[in-house]
Write a structure and sequence with these properties.
Blueprint lengths: L6 H9 L3 E2 L13 E7 L6 E7 L7
Antiparallel strand pairs: 1-2, 2-3
Length: 60
């Protein structure tokens, strides 16, 4: 079995319904901060992590 996902497998994971695994309320990060929220599929067979990182806007 290959360690790489096919495009179809990646698309299925992205499209999959996701739910938070706890009831903890989280605050969005300040500039330079980060936040990680654990998620799972409805049957909890798949685990996901929503990462949010805040960086100051730097125009090109």
């Amino acid at each position: 079995m290959s360690p790489w996902l096919t495009q179809a497998e990646a698309d299925a994971l992205l499209a999959m319904e996701k739910h938070r695994v706890d009831e903890e309320r989280r605050l969005l990060p300040d500039f330079g901060g980060g936040l990680s929220v654990p998620l799972a599929s409805p049957d909890r067979a798949e685990s996901f992590c929503l990462d949010i990182h805040s960086e100051p806007y730097q125009p090109d």
